[in-house]
Amino acid sequence: MKQITFSTTINAPAEKVWFCLWNKANYINWTSVFSEGSHAISDWNKGSKIHFLSPEGDGMYAIISELIPNEKITFLHQGEVKNHVEQGLNEEWANSEEGYVLKEDNGITILNVNLTLDEKWQDFFNDTFPKAIALVKEDAENGTVKLITVQTVIDKPLQEVWDKYTKPEHIVNWNFASDDWHCPKTYNEVKTGGQFSHRMESKDGSMGFDFEGTYSEVIPLKKLAFNLGERKVWTEFTSFNGKTLVSGNFEPEQTHSIYMQRDGWQAILNNFKKYCN
Fold first, then answer.
1. What is the pLDDT of residues 72-113, one digit of tens each?
2. Residue 178 in contact with residue 200, Cβ under 8 Å?
3. SS3 assignment, position 268
4. Which bin fits 129, alpha (ψ -120 to 50), beta or left (φ > 0)?
5. Rounded distance, CA 235 to CA 220, Å?
6. pLDDT in tens, 207-221
7. 114 Cβ contact list (under 8 Å, min separation 6)
8. Are 53 and 59 in contact (CB under 8 A)?
9. Is the pTM value of this prediction over 0.90?
10. DSSP class per residue in 167-205
11. Confidence tier at 8 by pLDDT (50, 70, 90)
12. Per-residue exposure over 112-144, b if at least 16 CB sit within 10 Å of its own CB, e if not
């Protein structure tokens, strides 16, 4: 095994660098250096699996062995994936590591990427990784966030997850971000051009609003899309290894920070996962 380290200094806080590394749209941007259309599937929890895939569903899988948000993440590689199916432990990749460490000082972040891998890959990564982290740096320092993605992996089959996400008798049980709110009633016409309306209220009755819209695209078991004014919002459903990845994607608004927006949508998605399990 060969150890390699790549480093760059980024004029941005660690939270923003972390976002530019792992938010879906940003990740697709910098990993295109390795393979066009690269993406990752995981619930992004310590101890969980992560699949690094091409658009065809081929790639590698690993375990998230270390995770401190905005500071450190380490992937312990396991083996290959073919057509979204794990191929089992691979001697070439097993025990190879890929780690990202962020250290911030007065709004400046040093990003170190540490690789431990078979020597045959050394030339490839020596060529590609500097280009990749240069894109992370450019994104964090100069980029405008065009898309925010929140994700969760649910240990249930796709059909069950789709039903619980779309049927009103289920929606009222999870469609809120915190325990002091609820969704007392809902209407959901799941088809392209169909209407939806979710009543959102604080449990003490002091606040409430109707979240309403029209679906611009519905692909059963795959995608739900609608617009919030000029902003596009869509949810994607992907089945892999008997589990279901739910990805919520939305164009940010300009009033609140991207982190506040992300955390609010993620809280609802986490509540949905809790209900499904």
1. 999 999 999 998 889 988 887 887 999 999 999 999 999 999
2. no
3. helix
4. alpha
5. 11
6. 999 999 999 999 999
7. 3, 4, 5, 97, 98, 99, 100, 101
8. yes
9. no
10. -HHHHTTT--SSTTEEEEEEEE--STT-EEEEEEEETTS
11. very high
12. ebebbbeeeeeeebeeebeebbebbbebbeebe
Torsion of CA 99, 105, 107, 108, to 10 degrees: -60
Closest by Cα among 10, 34, 242, 187 to 107:
10
Which of the 8 DSSP states describes residue 138?
A: H
At which residue do the structure tokens 């259309």 appear?
A: 37
AA identity, residue 215: Y
* Long-range contacts, 264-270 (Cβ 8 Å, 24+): 264/177, 265/148, 265/150, 266/150, 267/177, 267/178, 268/174, 268/175, 268/176, 268/177, 269/150, 269/151, 269/152, 270/152
SS3 1: coil
